[in-house]
Design a protein that fits this description.
The chain has 925 residues and is an alpha/beta fold. Among the domains are: 28-70 and 278-458, Hexokinase, domain 1 (3-Layer(aba) Sandwich); 78-220 and 462-481, 2-Layer Sandwich (Nucleotidyltransferase, domain 5); 726-862 and 871-892, Hexokinase, domain 1. The strands form 6 sheets. The protein has a 6-stranded mixed beta sheet with strand order 1-11-10-9-12-13, sandwiched between helices. Strands 14-24-23-22-25-26 form a 6-stranded mixed beta sheet, sandwiched between helices. The structure holds 6-O-phosphono-alpha-D-glucopyranose and beta-D-glucopyranose (2 copies).
């Protein structure tokens, strides 16, 4: 207060409220006023410092670095694009907080690109002060009441109403319809709202009101509504600037610069929340005593200062009042007399300042206003008061310009553009009522951001239309989400459905073992024991039926098992050619391997992992029942494949091989893991195909004589459900995949679980979602219509936690799919639903098996290990965990350990061969 100092000031002696000091002559008054207003001058250097500090604070917040309370907040708004102009429909908009003590309800009709612009209908409701300061529920009930009052008066059809909620306070948004209030500003201070989701609070209030069913689909900050409301012709505006009771701006930032977002493409709208900017370093020098006084008296001292309280319309009137009161008390104005009105907070409002500051209004209007405040207005007072108004407003406009210039610099940085051409949508009554505000702002922005060509577009209806635009986008996304959920719902299996699969599999196992009609063939494998560690010798092993065909040399010694192997390809035309061709190819590989390993001419015992359903009549006899997994070589089904191999060997001169055993890859895997862990009595494959085997009580195996001991049973569970027992779970996408396969109607369970099919199921779902317009803007691409283009390995890649959405997009773009970030997210969800169902079904199968073993042995608790192999199980980030969780849920009395087989089932085949050789040896002795 000392800045003015007492010298030369005179006041009317003794009158109440009048200054005791001598009153200055008029010319001194104006000087003293101007001297007082000097402190409202902000130099260009100071503005540049504020611009730089604000920019620094913005970039710090964008990097996600902790920022002091006095910084800007940089809040993502989940608005990813400016309007396409295609938005259409009727929307209700509720605006709360933009214009202080009033809320507004609008009915906005968007006509898309075709239609002309429809004027929104709106109604404003004054919010009683006790509602602005009372319990939050009261405020939201008040809002819901205004909504229904507004809708009652409207002749339109009010079914399926969709509402956009413009809530002009700092919020952490986690979605277009999820937003948590950080702190109240601008005269609001309702209890029980900060830290809560304001959309839910509004939904609850509308529900309590019960008059209308209204779907709140989006919550939007008023700056975003202002930006989005920019007329398509003139825009698009990429900055939204509001100066009303409060002030703030939003702008379109490159998503990759927003650390909290997992995005690298496209833009996202950021609400700067510059109202809380208060870096004392740069603002300290421009603060006046009036600013400090205002903050102390305000509803939220210390908060939203200084920036909002130096610019926002809620405070400008108060600043003017404080200056006038000060000058009056110094005898400089109003004859040195104040009035109760002049001394009471909030008596000078934004509108008053607008009128008084308006050069056209003229001194007369100022006189009238000051008299209304109970002041005796001297000749020069009106003009001096206008100086005060102009000084306060000019400072506000210049500070606002410094902030806007910081946003412009930020855009230049993030877009690496020297010259930036940009449109700024402006909204708020300070713009509407104070034409000088915009002109000062424009001039100052040109000063501070000379390389930016900025056009200012006043928003036509305070952003209501923009909020409707965002609501239209949100409604579209919400509709898409509903369609996505509906499409994926059949893949979400609950406990009862999984328990039913377990029970049906159990029933099919028993029937299969008895030789009754069952989709589970329960094939005896003639493997009666898991290895006991006494096996020894060198063995050849073949591994056919998985992703790769391998020939292995397996050396079993006291010190363990040493494996040398070579992968060979089986081209599709050979796998689907003649049986002779296929087995000749196999023998070629064996000969090649023997040559490379220096084994030529040696006739080592050979174990043949043949991963297809075979009815075995002995360890070395297996009749192929039917091909699976893309194999269809002719003249094999119904044949003993060991004979086919021996015939092929026979066709090849000078090759001697001693085929001792044929095993299924599940059995090979169980034996391979059983070598390390004798409790391993189950073998599981989840790869190209899927299947399981386990050690069954011989007494339960009708096809094999004997009541004691065990027999390993190859379940061939891939065919489970071929009798229709899984039809309740099968989706139209499963049917599409089955119909397109080379064995329709076969391997139902496998086609819902294994690697050969999951990618195709996903592709069919993506085609459906594209046809519904949910994905890829409804554009069907040739690529996506190509069979097997979506590899199952993509599921494993896309679902890996370490992969950000951006990498998901990269995978999909390689497929030539034009996608948005929302698309990538939806594709991820489709993959998750398909792989989760596969893993749960697999888990239900394993639960059926281990429960069978437990009950076979009449045990309360069973501890058992399961040997597992297969690319899908091994590579998918979540598959194995989901299988184990499902087994724990469905077979709680079984302690199940899953052992991933390191050496594949070739080793297992060699061990089966070794056991056979040992038993044969003992038999010969
Ligand atoms: C391993 C086993 C093979 C089995 C395959 C299944 O490679 O050694 O016997 O067939 O896994 O997995 P895949 O993903 O290759 O079909
Ligand atoms: C709020 C902002 C809002 C601005 C303008 C500020 O007080 O924090 O969210 O955009 O006022 O209404
Ligand atoms: C075959 C099984 C094999 C499984 C895993 C299925 O298609 O029928 O024999 O175990 O794939 O490879």
């Amino acid at each position: 207060m000392d800045s003015i100092g007492p010298v030369g000031l005179q006041q009317r002696e003794g009158a109440p409220g009048c200054s005791q000091e001598g009153l200055p002559c008029p010319s001194d008054s104006s000087e003293l006023v101007l001297e007082c207003l000097q402190q409202f001058k902000v130099t260009e250097t100071q503005l540049q410092q504020i611009q730089a500090s604000l920019l620094g604070s913005m970039e710090q917040a964008l990097r996600g670095q902790a920022t002091p309370a006095s910084a800007v907040r940089m809040l993502p708004t989940y608005v990813g694009s400016t309007p396409h102009g295609t938005e259409q429909g009727d929307f209700v908009v509720l605006e709360l907080g933009a214009t202080g003590a009033s809320l507004r309800v609008l009915w906005v009709t968007l006509m898309g690109t075709e239609g002309h612009r429809m004027e929104p209908q709106s109604q404003e409701f004054v919010i009683p002060p006790e509602v602005m300061l009372g319990p939050g529920q009261q405020l939201f009930d008040f809002a819901a009441h205004c909504l229904s009052e507004f809708l009652d008066a409207l002749p339109m059809d009010k079914q399926g109403l969709q509402l956009g909620f413009s809530f002009s306070f700092p919020c952490h948004q986690t979605g277009l319809d999820r937003s948590t209030l950080i702190s109240w500003t601008k005269g609001f201070r309702c209890s029980g709202v900060e830290g809560h989701d304001v959309v839910q609070l509004l939904r609850d209030a509308i529900e309590r009101q019960g008059a209308y069913s209204i779907d709140v689909v989006a919550v939007v900050n008023d700056t975003v509504g202002t930006m989005m409301g920019c007329e398509p012709g003139v825009g698009p505006c990429e900055i939204g600037l509001v100066v009303d009771t409060g002030t703030n701006a939003c702008y379109m930032e490159e998503a990759r610069h927003v650390a909290v977002l997992d995005e690298d493409r496209g833009r996202v709208c950021i609400s700067v929340e510059w109202g809380s900017f208060s870096d004392d370093g740069v603002l300290g020098p421009v603060l006046t005593t009036f600013d400090h006084a205002l903050d102390r008296e305000s509803l939220n001292p210390g908060a939203q200062r200084w920036f909002e309280k130096m610019i926002g319309g809620l405070y400008l009137g108060e600043l003017v009042r404080l200056v006038l009161a000060h000058l009056a008390q110094r005898g400089v104005l109003f004859g040195g007399c104040t009035s109760p009105a002049l001394l009471s907070r909030g008596s000078i409002l934004l509108d008053h300042v607008a009128e008084m500051e308006d050069p056209l209004a003229g001194a007369a209007r100022v006189h009238a206003l000051l008299q209304d405040l109970g002041l005796s207005v001297g000749a020069s007072d009106a003009e001096l008061v206008q100086y005060v108004c102009a000084a306060v407003l000019t400072r506000a406009a210049r500070l606002c310009a410094a902030a806007l210039a910081a946003v412009l610099s930020r855009l230049q940085h993030s877009r690496e553009q020297q010259m930036l051409q940009i449109a700024v949508a402006t909204g708020g009554r300070v713009f509407e009522r104070h034409p000088s505000f915009l002109s000062v702002l424009q001039k100052t922005v040109m000063l501070l951001a000379p390389q930016c060509d900025v056009s200012f577009i006043p928003s036509v209806d305070g952003g209501g239309r923009g909020v409707a635009m965002v609501t239209a986008v949100a409604a579209r996304l919400a509709a898409h989400r509903r369609l996505l959920e509906e499409t994926l719902a059949p893949f979400r299996l609950n406990h009862n459905q999984l328990a039913a699969v377990q029970a049906q599999m159990r029933e099919a196992m028993v029937k299969g073992l008895r030789g009754e009609a069952s989709s589970l063939r329960m094939l005896p494998t003639y493997v009666r024991a898991t290895p006991d560690g006494t096996e020894r010798g060198d063995f050849l092993a073949l591994d056919l039926g998985g992703t790769n065909f391998r020939v292995l040399l397996v050396r079993v010694t006291a010190g363990g098992v040493k494996i040398t192997s070579q992968v060979y390809s089986i081209p599709e035309d050979v796998a689907q050619g003649s049986g002779q061709q296929l087995f000749d190819r196999i023998v070629d590989c064996i000969v090649d391997f023997q040559q490379k390993q220096g084994l030529s001419g040696q006739s080592l015992p050979l174990g043949f992992t043949f991963s297809f359903p075979c009815r075995q009549l002995g360890l070395d006899q297996g009749i192929l029942l039917n091909w699976t997994k893309g194999f269809s070589a002719s003249d094999c089904e119904g044949q003993d494949v060991v004979c086919l191999l021996r015939e092929a060997i026979g066709r090849r001169q000078a090759v001697e091989l001693n085929v001792v055993a044929i095993v299924n890859d599940t059995v090979g895997t169980m034996m391979s893991c059983g070598y390390e862990d004798p409790r391993c009595e189950v073998g599981l494959i989840v790869g190209t195909g899927t299947n399981a085997c386990y050690m069954e009580e011989l007494r339960n195996v009708a096809a094999v004589a004997g009541d004691s001991g065990h027999m390993c049973i190859n379940m061939e569970w891939g065919a489970f459900g071929d009798d229709g027992s899984l039809d309740l779970l099968r989706t139209c996408f499963d049917a599409n995949v089955d119909q397109a396969s080379i064995n329709p109607g076969k391997q139902s369970f496998e086609k819902m679980i294994s690697g050969m099919y999951l990618g195709e199921i996903v592709r069919h779902i993506l085609l459906r979602l594209t046809s519904l317009g949910v994905l890829f803007r409804g554009q069907q691409t040739q690529r996506l219509q190509t069979r097997d283009i979506f590899k199952t390995k993509f599921l494993s890649e896309i679902e890996s936690d370490s992969l950000a959405l951006r990498q998901v997009r990269a995978i999909l773009e390689d497929l030539g799919l034009p996608l948005t970030s929302d698309d990538a997210l939806m594709v991820l969800e489709v993959c998750q639903a398909v792989s989760q169902r596969a893993a749960q079904l697999c888990g239900a199968g394993v639960a059926a098996v281990v429960e069978k073993i437990r009950e076979n042995r009449g045990l309360e608790e069973l501890t058992v290990s399961v040997g597992v192999d297969g690319t899908l199980y091994k590579l998918h980030p979540h598959f194995s965990g989901l299988v184990a969780a499902t087994v724990r849920e469905l077979a709680p009395r079984c302690e199940v350990t899953f052992l991933q087989s390191e050496d594949g089932s070739g080793k297992g085949a060699a061990l089966v061969t070794a056991v056979a050789c040992r038993l044969a040896q003992m038999a010969r002795v």
